[in-house]
Structures are given as C-alpha cells and as structure tokens.
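Researcher: Re-running this chain for the archive, since the previous output was lost when a drive failed. Same request as before.
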Amino acid sequence: MSFETTAIYALPLGAIYLGLWVGVAKVRAEKKVSIGDNGDAALLLRIRRHGNFVEWVPMVLIMMLLAEGLGAPPVWLHISGALLVLGRLAHPIGLKIDNASHPLRYVGNSTNMLALLNAMVCVGVNLAGL
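Model: Regenerated structure tokens:
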C-alpha cells in the first residue's frame, strides 16, 4: 500500500520540524543551556514553538495515514494536509511571549484543529463504510 498523499505533506512538515529544531539548538548553543530554558525568554519561546509542532503534527499525520489506508478520497487528505502545513507555518510566527492573542497564533491553532477533525471524520466515515 502506498501513502502518497500523506507523504506530500509529511515532507514539508519534516522541513519545518528541522527548522524549528535548529532554532532551539542555535539558542541553546549561544546561551550554553543543555536542558530547559534557564529562565531565558528567547529560548523558552523557541522551545514552545518546536514543542507545539511536536504536540500536533504526529497525531494529524497518523490520522491522515489511517484515513488514506482505509481508502479516503485524496481530496479530503489534501484538505487536512494543507490545513496542517498552513497552521504549522503560521503558528510559530504568531506565538509571542508578549501577545497571547496574535492572529497567526489563532490561525495556527484553528487550522490544526480543523486538520485533525477532518482526518478523524475521514477515518470514521471509511471505517463505517459510508
């Protein structure tokens, strides 16, 4: 079985993951912090940007893989994948220490939730044979 549609989105998401990781590693090296954030706001922000990615992306990709494996139409997988990539690009830009209501933070969180819900519906519909 091939998971080509999900793979289309896993590739750019992997690149975003690496970019966020490099951001954390760079500040860790500059500040000589091995574990935690040592009270450094810039490092904490980068850790949370990376952490939020890790909290969302695996579950959405797993649901997309399951939906694709169950035979969900590619258009629905593209919807989840596009929403997820959009959210993962917007969220780190909108995640600010001094502004909890930045619009891109809302865009990031909303698109992630919609991507997951769409993928969950795809799994449910295909499991039910509808």
